[in-house]
Records
---
Amino acid sequence: MSRRMLIAGNWKMNKTPQETEAFINELLPTLPSDPGADVLIIPPFTSLDRAGRLLSHAALALGAQDLHFEPSGAFTGAVSGAMLAACGCRYVLVGHSERRHIFGDSDADLSRKLNAALDAGLHPILCLGETLEERTRGEMEAVVTRQLTSVCEALRRAGDTGVSYAYEPVWAIGTGETAAPEQAQEASRFVRTWIGETLAPSAAEAARILYGGSVKPGNACELLSPPDIDGALIGGASLRPDAFAEIIAAAQTGD
Ligand code: PGA
């Protein structure tokens, strides 16, 4: 089965609505009508409404960086899945390592967030990955297994194509250090095998597994070529339209 690549730019806490508009206006004309991959930008909450209006008919999709697990209520500072969908989001990140490690999102929170995303009709991208200490201790597989197992029921509910995955070793995020393509392939293969054994073989075939961690124009091609890598989740290099466009182009050649 050939899976269509997904190239996602996670802007983190960067860009005002005005800067978001300028980015979209610069990127869109450079994209071919079919870029050969699904392409997604993930701006901060405050830019989503503006981006959603600009992208309503465009080949560029919109995602959010996080959501709350309740649909509404007294949760100061939080944003629900329905609010994101109403801004035009189709995707939402769940369990990005900065959410896990800086904001303390627990495995139990993430299970509820996955369910909340599905309830709102959003496509979650579940982020997985080990810290440097965990990798040094040889625990990559144990950590990823724990992260997957704790949300297993929500993944089952999502069906074969209702969720995507991003393997992002924490030691490669924002550090300039990337996993070797063989390490990224090994981890993605491990995730796919877990999906096949725990959920369903058809889910393993269909699952899109992205690599994230210091992906740039110069390394995108080799990081996108291993057989179990179906796209990239890009932080820093997604903030410049020209660099992001180069990575999108690499997805076509690495396919
Ligand atoms: P980076 O971020 O590309 O800046 O390393 C990746 C991510 O956090 O998704």
---
Amino acid sequence: MSSVLVTGGAGYIGSVTVERLVGAGHSVVVLDNLSKGHRAAMHEGVPLVVGEIGDRELVAKTLTEHKVEAVIHFAAMSLVGESMEKPGDYYQNNVVSGIRLLEGMHAAGVDRIVFSSSAGVYGEPESVPISETNRTAPVNVYGDTKLIFERVLAWEAERTGLKHISLRYFNAAGASGRYGEDHRPESHLIPIALQVVAGRRPELTVFGDDYETPDGTCIRDYIDVRDLSDAHILALDALEKGRSGIYNLGNGEGWSVLNVIDSVERVTGRVVERKMGARRAGDPARLVASSSLAIRELGWKPEHPELDDMIEAAWAWMMEHPGGYTE
Ligand code: UFG
């Protein structure tokens, strides 16, 4: 079992991963600036260092004090739309501060990292399902920052021998029971649809129904946050064996926006009030993963591949946390 620093461990995917790391017997410390994360999403008994990943000295000190052997790096700005409005902030946080984190790791002699990358690195895919060898051509700043940092890791590996695994997430969904999705403001499809049925929003706008897909709405590959988290634990094992690499994490199945709305109605027994709207800038029509490499090399196996199960978990979490996390 390793001692692990989780950056962004008070966020959505980070909190579920911390819970599962602790469950698997790892010792964990979290570094989070709480700009998006929630103190209430901190797993009990896990120390929280409130600070910046770009604070090299703080990173090195934390790694040394907690005898950390590996880092799981979630902390990032992650909204596609916002990234187009504030590109400088995204390159600063996701690239420059990420490089400072690597410098802190190097200073402390920590040479293993799992990095949260994104399907956003592919842009409009040349073919579907998308494998890791597909062309990478981001269509938004967010995806570009993730791709640049993957390259930074590869160069650092040449220079310092860093071992790195980048996990390209498709669309994270669901909840773990204790930890769930609470973005402010919320921009993701499933929580928005659930907020509509919960009476916290009047309606959902479907962003475009004129795409070249069977029902005209965008298709995404939703992956349960618990399965996503488990892949990080497997990635730690792989790093320990000296493996580096890049892996897609998705179900290999696509659901359209209307499929998601149907599922929300099925699970909650309520109607999702919706209206058709214009396309959202930067949305590829269809993103579906081939995760066969992660299955083969990491031994990953999604346990919750059904969209209804993910939505049921997200709905249960929302019912228990009607106002999200309260600090
Ligand atoms: N959508 C709507 N109405 C809404 C919100 C979303 O129709 O109110 C649609 C979007 O246009 C898209 C789909 O629902 O077609 C899913 O949108 P999300 O915002 O939930 O997720 P994205 O696919 O845009 O983004 C996710 C991650 C990003 C990552 C990206 C990779 O949140 O971090 O996948 O494609 F970069």
